[in-house]
Write a structure and sequence with these properties.
Radius of gyration: 20 Å
Strand content: 25-35%
Number of domains: 2
Structural class: alpha+beta
CATH superfamily of the largest domain: YerB-like
Distance between the termini: 32 Å
Shape: globular
Helix content: 10-25%
Number of helices: 6
CATH topology of the largest domain: YerB-like fold
CATH architecture of the largest domain: 3-Layer(bba) Sandwich
Number of strands: 26
Largest sheet: 12 strands, mixed
């Protein structure tokens, strides 16, 4: 598989060299600060590299147009709880990328990744890290926010140079216990929260790198031409993350989004009370194994494999590859896959016990 992935990457790089990076549709792989739309002509002696009122920029994690340049900012990823006793998650609908992965005991946790952290409200509840969640923080040069972690994860954070903020070390005022949850009987481990401005202030106050290094480019590519148009019909489908945990998607033709359900109830954002809706739904079949024979703590291989991609009621096979330089998506013929403009939810299902079923 590694040899196949390497050949695919080589072919993709050659294609980029021959054709250049310009595409008709917005593409998050464009160089930083690329202004994609201007209401003011930028004529005469005006500095054409400076933004004007009305200019639009590309959000590199979603392909969406935004009013100010966010492409130079490091994203921030959060370890979020996802057991039934801890739902709903707060702020999840604002994350451009959500990765659901297995944890011990057939439960799952999320890493929710936000491009513009300063604009976010309450985020939580926050839990501990596992080593394979670090892979996605590194792939997008993101800061990881967590509340401790397994011994292997904590060692890997230091060894791999992951920028991180540990709530168990820094505590208040950056982090807080949600009083409404405490009052309503949530266990204390499901009440740890923060906010976007809190994280931004912490990063600035502690000298953390707030911007990408020079030359950084996000690996994701986006288009308004839906790539699944020749796929199979997938108006609703269920992803079995493992032998028991289900995550479900139902297509809404009016919004052209997938509405999400888990634990036999709509998956909602605790900040808004609204059901989570995503443009892109992906499944990465992933190898998991127990770290120790006497323990349920997991390890996982997030280097790549095969998967599924669903968008606008259709589904297709894909190939995925992850390195610390990014996430790379391909069609079955090896050509790059462009996601539809919008937010994405990625289920990293167990390759041995997980599955995708085209039904509710």
């Amino acid at each position: 598989m590694k040899r196949v992935t390497a050949l695919i990457l080589t072919a993709v790089m050659l294609c980029m060299l021959l054709t250049g990076c310009e595409t008709v549709m917005p593409n998050a792989g464009h160089q930083l600060n690329r202004i994609v739309l201007s209401k003011s002509g930028k004529e005469g002696t005006v500095d054409e590299t400076a933004p004007f009122p009305g200019d639009k920029f590309i959000n590199p994690l979603s392909g969406q147009l935004v009013d100010h340049d966010v492409s130079y900012m490091r994203p921030v990823g959060f370890m979020n709880n996802n057991i039934y006793q801890a739902i709903p998650q707060h702020g999840i609908s604002q994350a451009e990328l959500v990765f659901e992965m297995n944890a011990e005991g057939n439960i799952t946790r999320f890493i929710t990744i936000y491009q513009d952290i300063a604009s976010q409200g309450a985020i939580g509840s926050i839990r501990s890290a596992r080593p394979y969640y670090l892979d996605w923080a590194l792939a997008f040069d993101a800061v990881l926010v967590h509340a401790g972690g397994s011994e292997t994860a904590n060692n890997a954070i230091n060894r791999r140079g992951v920028g991180h903020i540990n709530a168990l070390v820094h505590g208040e005022p950056t982090f807080y216990r949600d009083q409404a949850r405490l009052n309503s009987g949530y266990a204390i481990e499901h009440t740890l929260f923060t906010t976007g401005p809190n994280i931004q202030y912490f990063m600035e106050s502690n000298g953390m790198r707030y911007n990408h290094n020079e030359g950084y480019q996000c690996s994701l590519q986006f288009t308004t031409v839906v790539q699944t148009q020749w796929g199979i019909d997938a108006p609703e489908f269920t992803v079995y993350m493992n032998s028991s945990k289900r995550t479900q998607f139902r297509y809404d033709p009016e919004s052209k989004m997938y509405l999400m359900t888990e634990y036999d109830r709509p998956m909602t954002d605790g900040n808004t009370g609204q059901q989570l809706a995503v443009k892109n739904a992906l499944v990465f079949f992933t190898n998991y194994w127990r770290e120790y024979s006497y323990d349920t703590t997991l390890l996982a291989d997030m280097s790549g494999g095969y998967g599924k991609y669903a968008c606008e009621g259709k589904m297709m096979d894909i190939i995925w590859s992850r390195t610390d330089d990014g996430l790379f998506l391909y069609k079955p013929d090896g050509l790059p896959l462009e996601l539809a403009v919008g937010h994405s939810f990625i289920c990293c299902a167990d390759a041995s016990s997980g599955s995708v079923v085209l039904s509710w």
